[in-house]
Design brief:
Elements lengths: L2 H8 L4 H16 L5 H12 L5 H17 L7 H17 L4 H14 L4 H14 L9 H17 L1 H10 L3 H8 L6 H10 L1 H6 L6 H9 L18 H12 L6 H11 L5 H17 L2 H20 L4 H18 L4 H19 L5 H14 L3 H21 L3 H24 L6 H20 L5 H16 L6 H17 L9 H14 L1 H15 L11 H9 L4 H20 L4 H17 L4 E2 L2 E2 L1 H16 L5 H15 L4 H18 L10 H10 L7 H16 L8 H14 L6 H8 L3 H4 L6 H17 L3 H14 L5 H5 L23 H19 L18 H16 L4 H4 L3 H11 L10 H27 L8 H13 L9 H8 L2 H23 L2 H4 L3 H11 L5 H15 L10
Antiparallel strand pairs: 1-2
Length: about 1050
């Protein structure tokens, strides 16, 4: 069989095989095994078959596939021309296989560029003989033709333009060619190729037809199918269509009337598309064209702003006003004045009624219009601001004055934003009214009643805006504005309503960005006056210090703030100022370097800051000045400045401090009070900076402190965190066990023979470090199992410590150069949770409801079971729901029993701590139940009875309004433990409220009456938060629509 016969046989059944056959023919052409004339001759019986159009189309398809596989330079120029003439001649007499003909021509053009005449003939052939394109039903055929036309308009722009100029009948036919196309893939190309004639040809005689040909698709309502392989979205089509509509100013007489007509649509999506199209037209059309429609557009757009239906529609309308102003600013003053005149008039009319929604919208309009450029903004100022201040001065109403100042602030904001976009703009128009505005706002800020918060805040924002407008104020006026705001920060002391100090500090910081010299010269000295060198204990200026430190968030005054704080601290220390004052000054420095704006190089804080600020403090500490209240702050400051530095810098610092820190951390004379500083110091260091030989003595010293029962308990938590840090970051994972043994903190040794509470705490700290590190998997697993084995015999306190293993720690993080495994939480889950759930099951009573199974009075298994439940809750507390989800089936029974755990009833301080821990255990379980109810309620359907009963029990447990009495109420209400119990009650009620919403109705209806009845008690709870949740829960259960007795 010949290649053409094989192709025709396979093309419908196996297209890849058919294309392979065509490729073989192409190879024969290349190897001269087949002549082009023979190839064409072999097509003749099929391509000329008058009885079978499908056969003719397939024959052309064969030719197209052969040509697409032919290598360059195989066909001569003459052969390509002959083939082109052959294909075009066929189209003139027979359009069967039009898509294949287009593909063949595309391949020919790819093999060699056409001359202008050929390109013109190709386009005219298709336009004259395949018009309209929609007559061809297959999208793939039309797609090939559209691709060919797109290529012609992209690569042969000049010949196509000459074709249009030479033949007045061409353009109408060309427009009609694409009429009625509906396929998104084709339309994407059509919208793109039509922009060539729209933007480059003289289309004035055909403007309406060309415009209508694309506007017929407006608005786009296309929704792509879920499995669309082409990835074409409605937004893609909208963008291309919008570009067509805005392509030529000749479209304006047709575009604007139709767009404004569609702006009245009730569809919000249509309105959005219209507004975006208007914006595109304003940008794309000539200014002289826009001038003809500017007032008409304003009349239509203002409705969307003054009568807001959707906020985003108002925003889009405001953008259009901005673009209109910017476009008309390119012309002479006449068109711009004509556009602005009705806007200014309408806004001034609304200002007379301020404050109203319309006056507020007028402020937005004036801001947006002013953003069109400095020329526009100047005209707005001249047209609006005199009227605004006349109204301001003639009114005694504070509310009206506030509304007017808000509009003035909008105009000022426009100048500030314009300065960012066009640095160096002229602000003379604002200067004329700046003095009047400054006086009005300073008077409002100082003299207005303190209860008029919104008025004073408006004035405050206005002052910041006025100062931010470059050269609007003289130096004296700037000083006046800065003084007024500084005075608010320093001297106003209003609690609750009327306090505007926070906003005043923010305004002062904004001013510091624009006029740093004024803030340095005026505000900083004023702050220093309020911060004496040595105040009395009860006269520490905390609020002033806090405000001063917040100025450091502005880079321009950062160094001034930090230098003054450092100097003030040095003076205060030498003069023996109260420790609370020294601490406050150090906290100010810490705030500046952690939340402020220090200078950086390549994103890293400059090393000079450590040398100038931290190093003197470290020297003080090394010399024995170790005030307990400031050591941790100094450590945190050192950490903030040292942590980002490179290895070389840190090595120098470490070497300088090694001797005195080693002496202070000696095993025999370790100073536990230094631990807070040591913790943050070592947290800042990179692992490669230290020597392993230096770490073991430090571990030994800290182990001695941690294991000593007489050590100061105030520092015990810090010592344990330091042990975790040293083990995680500095101990070599390859010799970890040997290091722990040498340091006296090997876990198995610590926990052998009735371990002390201190030894248990150290063991948990070590295991936590190893788990997070993830480099000693076998050893960490072994130690973790040792901790799990403790649960069979230990006290509850040990079980509660399992929560520490996964608890977040600000020290053990990658920012502190610690080793943090990305999967350590999942590993801990897999190593602990199956064992704990199995042990709970083996203890018995896995599904027995009620608290009796774990009561305090029982011994043996029930106590062991409590430990397992507490440990399980502690592990699960810090895990994301995605980790828990696969194991929820086995977790639900033990979590239900966790809700039965008893609560301590004594009132000793230690018991309060225990009560808080027990409340946290229940809260953890309740949080998980809440997540399950929200995401996978079906998992709980078989436990509905147990769950609802336990939730009711938790919602009433330790209820201050219940029968436990007033003494319990007082005790719970005044302790942190009581707050934990309140959280449990509130969370259980939240879960109860979810039950009727998430479970099937038949599952919860049986419990409705009892739940509604018991929730009555919760409505009398002593805590408002609990009462609110009780109301929501009861409403949810009452909503099940079952008849309720009168008493309910």
């Amino acid at each position: 069989m010949s290649d053409i016969q094989l192709y025709l046989l396979e093309v419908d059944k196996n297209k890849p095989e058919a294309q392979s056959t065509a490729a073989q023919s192409a190879q024969k052409l290349e190897s001269k095994g087949l002549k082009l004339i023979d190839l064409i001759t072999s097509l003749e019986p099929y391509i000329n078959d008058k009885t079978d159009g499908n056969l003719r189309a397939k024959s052309v398809g064969y030719l197209a596939d052969v040509l697409s596989a032919v290598a360059p330079k195989v066909l001569s120029g003459q052969e390509r021309r002959l083939l082109g003439d052959f294909i075009l001649g066929r189209i003139e007499g027979d359009t069967e296989g039009i898509g294949a003909s287009a593909r063949a021509l595309l391949s020919l053009e790819d093999l060699g560029k056409w001359d202008a005449e050929t390109a013109q003939r190709v386009l005219t052939t298709f336009v004259n003989h395949a018009n309209p394109l929609r007559q061809f039903k297959l999208q793939t055929e039309r797609y090939s033709v559209v691709q060919l036309v797109d290529l012609l308009l992209a690569k042969y722009r000049e010949p196509m333009k000459k074709l249009h100029e030479s033949d007045p009948e061409f353009m109408p036919s060309f427009i009609a060619f694409f009429e009625g196309e509906k396929d998104p893939r084709n339309l994407m190309i059509i919208f793109s190729l039509l922009q060539v004639p729209m933007t480059e040809w003289d289309i004035q005689p055909n403007a309406q037809d060309l415009f209508d040909s694309v506007f017929n698709y407006f608005p786009i309502t296309f929704k792509p199918p879920p499995d669309d392989p082409y990835g074409i979205t409605a937004q893609d089509l909208k963008d291309r269509l919008r570009a067509c509509i805005a392509a030529n100013s000749d479209f304006a007489p047709h575009a604007f009337p139709q767009l404004l007509d569609k702006l009245d649509s009730t569809s919000m999506n249509t309105k959005r598309d219209v507004l975006q199209a208007i914006q595109a037209c304003v940008v794309g059309y000539e200014a002289k064209t826009i001038n003809l429609y500017s007032v008409t557009l304003w009349d239509a757009l203002k409705f969307e702003i003054l009568n807001v239906q959707e906020e985003d529609l108002a925003v889009e309308s405001l953008k259009a006003l901005t673009l209109l102003g910017a476009k008309l600013a390119e012309t002479s003053e006449g068109p711009l004045n004509a556009y602005l005149r009705p806007i200014i008039k309408e806004c001034n009319e609304h200002l007379e009624d301020a404050p109203t929604k319309q006056s507020e919208a007028s402020g937005r309009i004036l801001y947006s219009v002013s953003m069109g450029g400095q020329v526009v903004a100047d005209k707005v100022v001249k047209g609006v601001v005199p009227t605004l201040f006349n109204l301001y001065n003639s009114s005694e109403s504070i509310t009206k004055r506030r509304g007017l100042l808000e509009v003035f602030n909008q105009i000022l904001r426009a100048y500030v934003d314009l300065e960012d976009l066009q640095p160096g703009i002229n602000t003379e128009a604002v200067q004329v009214h700046a003095g009047e505005g400054l006086d009005a706002m300073v008077r409002a800020l100082i003299n207005a009643p303190k209860a008029e918060v919104s008025f004073r805040l408006t004035s405050l924002n206005g002052l910041a805006g006025l100062v931010s407008v470059r050269k609007a104020l003289s130096d004296t006026q700037v000083d006046s504005a800065v003084d007024a705001v500084t005075d608010i920060v320093l001297h106003e002391r209003i609690e609750g309503h009327g306090d505007i100090r926070t906003q005043a500090i923010q305004s002062l910081t904004e001013m510091a960005h624009v006029v740093p010299h004024a803030v340095r010269d005026r505000s900083v000295p004023a702050f220093m006056v309020e911060m004496p060198d040595c105040p009395t204990e009860d006269a520490v200026p905390g609020p002033v210090l806090e405000a001063f430190a917040q100025l450091s968030t502005e880079r321009q005054v950062f160094d001034t703030v930090t230098v003054r704080l450092k100097n003030k601290y040095n003076v205060a220390r030498h003069q023996g100022a109260p420790a609370s004052y020294q601490r406050a000054l150090l906290l100010g420095l810490l705030y500046a370097f952690t939340l402020g704006a220090p200078a950086r190089e390549d994103g890293v804080i400059l090393g000079k800051y450590y040398t100038e600020y931290a190093e003197p403090l470290v020297t003080e500490v090394s010399n024995g000045h170790r005030e307990s209240s400031t050591l941790e702050i100094i450590g945190r400051l050192v950490n903030a400045l040292l942590r980002p530095q490179g290895v070389h810098f840190q090595t120098n610092v470490y070497s300088k401090n090694l001797d005195w820190m080693t002496a202070s951390s000696n095993k025999e004379n370790a100073d536990i009070s230094l631990t807070p500083f040591t913790l943050h110091y070592y947290a800042a260091l990179r692992p490669e900076v230290t020597d392993a030989a230096d770490i073991v003595p430090l571990l030994q010293a800290q182990a001695t402190l941690a294991l000593n029962p007489s050590s100061d308990r105030a520092y015990s938590g810090t010592v344990l965190r330091l042990l975790s840090l040293l083990v995680n970051k500095f101990a070599n994972p390859k010799t970890m066990q040997a290091t722990l043994e040498a340091s006296g903190i090997e876990v198995q040794t610590l926990l052998s023979n009735n371990p002390t509470p201190q030894a248990t705490q150290v063991a948990f700290a070590i295991v936590k470090a190893l788990l997070i590190q993830g480099k000693t998997g076998k050893l960490a697993t072994q130690y973790l199992q040792v901790l799990l084995d403790l649960l069979a015999t230990c006290e509850k306190e040990t079980a509660h410590r399992f929560a520490i293993l996964l608890a977040p720690d600000e020290i053990l993080v990658k920012e502190n150069h610690c080793l943090v495994s990305g999967l350590y939480k999942q590993k801990v889950f897999n190593q602990t949770v199956p064992s704990l759930t199995e042990n709970v099951r083996l203890c018995g009573g896995a599904n027995a409801p009620g608290p009796s199974s774990t009561s305090e009075g029982e011994v043996g298994k029930p106590n062991k079971k409590s430990n397992y439940l507490i440990a399980l809750s502690g592990i699960l507390r810090w895990l994301p729901y995605s980790v828990l989800e696969p194991a929820l089936g086995s977790l639900i029974p033990p979590l239900l029993q966790t809700l039965d755990l008893s609560t301590s009833s004594t009132s000793s301080p230690s018991s309060s701590h225990q009560l808080a821990e027990e409340s946290e255990v229940k809260r953890s379980a309740l949080v998980i139940f809440e997540s399950v109810l929200m995401h996978d309620p079906r998992l709980l359907e078989e436990h509905v009875s147990s769950l609802v009963g336990r939730l009711l029990g938790c919602s009433n447990s330790a209820n201050p309004a219940s029968s436990t009495g007033a003494g319990t109420k007082a005790r719970i209400g005044s302790s942190a433990a009581g707050e934990g119990a309140v959280t449990v009650r509130a969370k259980s009620l939240q879960c109860l409220a979810l039950c009727p919403k998430q479970f099937r109705r038949e599952k919860v209806i049986p419990f409705r009456r009892e739940v509604v009845k018991q929730l009555l008690g919760c409505l009398d709870d002593g805590k408002r938060r609990v009462r609110a949740e009780a109301v929501r829960a009861r409403t949810a259960w009452l909503g099940l629509d079952e008849g309720v007795d009168e008493e309910d």
